[in-house]
Each structure stands twice: as C-alpha cells, then as structure tokens.
Amino acid sequence: xxxxxxxxxxxxxxxxxxxxxxxxxxxxxxxxxxxxxxxxxxxxxxxxxxxxxxxxxxxxxxxxxxxxxxxxxxxxxxxxxxxxxxxxxxxxxxxxxxxxxxxxxxxxxxxxxxxxxxxxxxxxxxxxxxxxxxxxxxxxxxxxxxxxxxxxxxxxxxxxxxxxxxxxxxxxxxxxxxxxxxxxxxxxxxxxxxxxxxxxxxxxxxxxxxxxxxxxxxxxxxxxxxxxxxxxxxxxxxxxxxxxxxxxx
Length: 249
Ligand code: AMP
Fold this sequence. Notes:
alpha/beta; about 15% strand
C-alpha cells in the first residue's frame, strides 16, 4: 500500500460541480467508513489514511462547518443545522442526506473515499447502502475506533484547533509553545463550540443512542474492523493499515 498524493477535496467541500486536484490515479480505490465516538480521533486518522491510501477524506462535519462560514445568506436548513451543531445535537437526517446526495460523485469517485462522521444514524446507513448498491460499488471495511468514553471526554474538553491551518493541540497533553497561538502558522487557536462541556455531554449521549448501534449494523454485514484508538496518531494509523492489510489478504 504505497503512499499517495492527498486530494484537495474541492468537490466534497465546495460541492460536486468543483473538480478535485490531483485527479485520482488508477490504483485500487479504497472505500472505508470510520466509526467511533466524537473525539476519538477519526478526523486525524482519516487525514493520515488519505495520505497513505489516496482516497478522499469525506467529513460531513467539515461540509456543515464550511457552509456555516460561507459569506452568502444561509438557508433556513443551514441555520437550523448550525443550531444543532452548537448544541452538540445531530443535524436532521434529511439535511445531511441532501448534502451527501448532492456529492454522490465523491462516492462514485475512482479514487475511493474515507467517510468520517457519516453515517451517524441507522437511516443514514441504510440510505448510504442503497446509494452504494445503486452505483454498483462496495465497501472495503468499516473501521471502528475504540476508546473508553471518560478518556474521550477529557480529550475533547482540552482540544484546541488552529483557525487557519487546522492543527490540533491539547491544553495539557499537547500544548502549543505560546498559549492560544499555533506553533506552525502563528494564528489563534480556538475551542470548538461543540467541544464545550455542555455540548460534549449531549454529543456522547447522542453517540450512544444513535451511532453506536451502527457497530452491530456493520458487523452483521461482515464489514466491521475494530481498532484500538490508544497511542499516537501515527501508531493508530499503522495499526489501522495493518488491520486493513490483514483483511485484504
Ligand atoms: P464532526 O465534525 O463529525 O464531529 O461533526 C460536527 C457536528 O456536525 C456534529 O456534532 C453534528 O451536529 C453535525 N454532523 C456531522 N455529521 C453529521 C451526520 N452524519 N448526521 C448528523 N449530524 C452531523
């Protein structure tokens, strides 16, 4: 599994009328879903896996945040979605599905995909199954990152993110050299609204109720690949690559 150029995700982030660069080459298109509680590190792993496998990192959270920051007048659906996100609640299935359906070219893409944060409910998983079947493609695996909830809550509450380059820090475990300032680009760090303690509690309850049942859902399809989420991002990624390799052979 050689290292590949990371695609820029233009079609996913800006809408499928945009063209991504670089265009995918003729390698095996990996099609993965990453599951795991919020804060377990799915986004970081999706980025690392994207660099190694060449498949695009597709995060519905990124699309929703991008739309929330757009300069144009937000639609009522986007205003409602923003409110859900700030509270740590799930955005309604029909809004999320509209976003994914509009970007079905990314699901079809011959570069493959790494879905992060989607599906999050049984209905979303069923709709995705249908889309995948209609496109005549199949999933390689559903990676489930495992970590005790108490550890995740501690991670999320201390997480700080760079506004500009999106580098991730932690106030005690991985602090920036200057408090509140990114080591890499010098921009200010921020605390995501949904990483505040009230929202974290809601997100964990929502995860247990709506998303954790997807573990059984995908186990029943024979696709589940459990991976321990302890250690450094590189260690977790190496563990994931090994599990994928073992599954393939
Ligand atoms: P994430 O970046 O994946 O943690 O997502 C941030 C927030 O966006 C979540 O807490 C939800 O409010 C919303 N969101 C992202 N993806 C979904 C989804 N598949 N279904 C419902 N809400 C979502």
